[in-house]
Amino acid sequence: MINTDVAIVGGGPAGLCAAISAAESGAKVTLIERDGELGGQLVKQTHMFFGSEKQYASTRGIDIIDILLEKLEKNKENVTIMKNTTVLGRYEDGLITAMVDENKYLKIKPESLIVATGATEKFLGFPNNDLPGIYGAGAVQTLMNVYGVKPGDKVLMVGAGNIGLIVSYQLMQAGVKVEAIIDAAPKIGGYLVHASKIRRMGVPIYTSHTVKEAVGTDHLEKAVIWELDEKWQPIEGSEKEYDVDVMCVSVGLSPLNELLVMAGCKMQYVPELSGNVPLRNENYETTAENIFVAGDSCGVEEASSAMVEGYLTGLTAAAKIGKIHPEFEEKKADYIKQLDDLRSGPVGKHIRTGIEKIVRR
Amino acid sequence: MLEKTGVPTKEQVMNEFPDISRINEGPVVVIECYKEIPCNPCTTACKFNAIHIGADINKRPEVTEEKCIGCGVCLSKCPGLAIMLVDGSKSDDYVHMTIPYEFYPLPEEGDIVEGLDRKGESLEKVKVLKVMNPKSYDRTPLIKLEVSRKYMYEFRNIRLEEK
């Protein structure tokens, strides 16, 4: 059995920052990642990040990993990294079990636990949505940006949120033709600067449109879309057809946090945070003592805020077990301010509303 | 309009352009950041304090045109690629416009490429004057182009001929 001060499940932006911050506080940290590499979704983000200097704005996601790994390296005497390790369960006595390399089981006993397991993609129901060639946006990004594989030649992008817009742009950079971007909502959900930069490449964006059906025998050959009225009902006769071999579905994410449910944390469905999320206090501690949460697993947001949440939670989770950073108060106040800054504008309104529902003081 | 299609109206675009007298004096930025988002690297990038956002990083950038020297550093730092340079000091018929361009292959100096508007539709053939891609631009190259003065408010992108 491995004993550790702080165990962190998930080595994405939130988990990495939590590990840095807890280690800097003097805690012994075990960072557990199911993939073979750290970084989570950052490994696919070839675009520059928004935010301000403290959240590495204007730096590409793929380069932010290097910055974070370097910070982790500086604290290596306090950090144990376990890759290819999947956490399987959390038991009443605080023990967590994990599988390493798909053939070895481990028991880990942390003093405090940070769950930073991220989110999972939502999908869309329409006839033939299981045809090969219909992907989630995450898969398309992984193929292109991690493995260097072109997913197809002609794409219909479903979803005009930031991910749909960014992946469309990256597809075009990879030499793939994006025929159109559609979204069922009446307005573009993502940042308009992303929308404009794709629109000026000649790609049309159709809001109030959804997929009617996919057509093909053994793979996608055609996508049929139609327009929605103000009540989100399809309009007969408004169909458009696209000869595409790829349909990329980017219709949002859901928080991934079954571990917290298993640990008995009180959960609540909060639409503004995209799903079932744990109740927590301002230190990101859940209703189960010494179990903390950070990043998309406590509400789907941007990677910038996931990183700041990670830094904050690493700090508070370490402090809770007596590993108090010498500049605890200053740092905590700074992270809280950064989060407020990121969320204070119109695009952060739903996040503020959602957080209001789950934070217990 | 913009929120449904990604294309700003003519009025929105015109609001972001400096006065023609300033454009004719020399290069100056045009920032098309129409919606409040939490982002401020343009202000951090500007060594001349010509771009202001302030303590609330959700505010839209404000340009002090007299302070902008048209260096173009902010163009490659804007994560939304929302900034371009316009310079009307060179000729009565043409303006020089500099845009960020993140696609391979890059054009070469002297190339004639298709000039596009904000919908990606063709305006005219434009000449590539300069391709700037130093390490400090971090893979966001800047392309300077010669554009007919009459298309100054429409021009926003280029397309290279497929080889």
* CATH architecture label of the largest domain in chain A: 3-Layer(bba) Sandwich
Determine the oligomeric state from the structure.
heterodimer
Give the amount of beta strand of chain B, in percent.
25-35%
- Work out the helicity level of chain A: 25-40%
Largest interface: A-B, 41 and 44 residues
Fold topology:
The complex is a heterodimer of chains A (361) and B (163).
Chain A lengths: L1 E8 L3 H12 L4 E4 L28 H14 L4 E4 L2 E6 L5 E5 L3 E12 L3 E3 L12 E3 H10 L7 E5 L3 H12 L3 E7 L8 H8 L5 E3 L1 E7 L6 E6 L12 E3 L3 E4 L3 E3 L2 H5 L4 E4 L4 E4 L12 E3 L9 H18 L7 H16 L5 H10 L3
Parallel strand pairs in A: 1-2, 1-6, 2-3, 6-19, 8-15, 9-10, 9-15, 10-11
Antiparallel strand pairs in A: 4-5, 5-6, 7-16, 12-13, 13-14, 17-18
Helix pairs in contact in A: 1-2, 1-7, 3-4, 4-5, 7-8
Chain B lengths: L1 H4 L4 H7 L3 H6 L2 E4 L9 H5 L5 E2 L9 E2 L9 H5 L5 E5 L6 E7 L11 E5 L5 E11 L9 E7 L8 E3 L4
Antiparallel strand pairs in B: 1-4, 2-3, 4-5, 5-8, 6-7, 6-9, 7-8
Primary descriptors:
heterodimer; A: 361 residues; alpha/beta; FAD/NAD(P)-binding domain; 2 domains; globular; B: 163 residues; alpha+beta; seven-stranded antiparallel beta sheet; two-stranded antiparallel ribbon; 17% helix
Describe this entry's structure for a reader.
The complex is a heterodimer of chains A (361) and B (163). With 361 residues, chain A is an alpha/beta fold. Chain A has helices at residues 13-24, 61-74, 137-146, 162-173, 192-199, 258-262, 303-320, 328-343, 349-358, and strands spanning 2-9, 29-32, 79-82, 85-90, 96-100, 104-115, 119-121, 134-136, 154-158, 177-183, 205-207, 209-215, 222-227, 240-242, 246-249, 253-255, 267-270, 275-278, 291-293. Chain A folds into 2 domains: 2-120 and 253-358, FAD/NAD(P)-binding domain; 123-249, FAD/NAD(P)-binding domain (3-Layer(bba) Sandwich), CATH 3.50.50.60. In chain A, a hairpin with a 4-residue loop joins strand 17 (267-270) and strand 18 (275-278). The two termini of chain A are 35 Å apart. In chain B, strand 6 (112-116) and strand 7 (122-132) form a beta hairpin. In chain B, the strands form 2 sheets. A 7-stranded antiparallel beta sheet of chain B has the order 1-4-5-8-7-6-9. A two-stranded antiparallel ribbon of chain B has the order 2-3. Chain B is α+β, with helices and mostly antiparallel strands. In chain B, 17% of the residues lie in helices and 28% in strands. The chains are: A alpha/beta (361), B alpha+beta (163). Chain A binds chain B through residues 47-53, 57-60, 172-173, 186-188, 191-205, 207, 304, 341-348, and chain B through 2-8, 32-41, 44-45, 56-59, 77-82, 102-104, 116-121, 138-140, 156-157, 159.
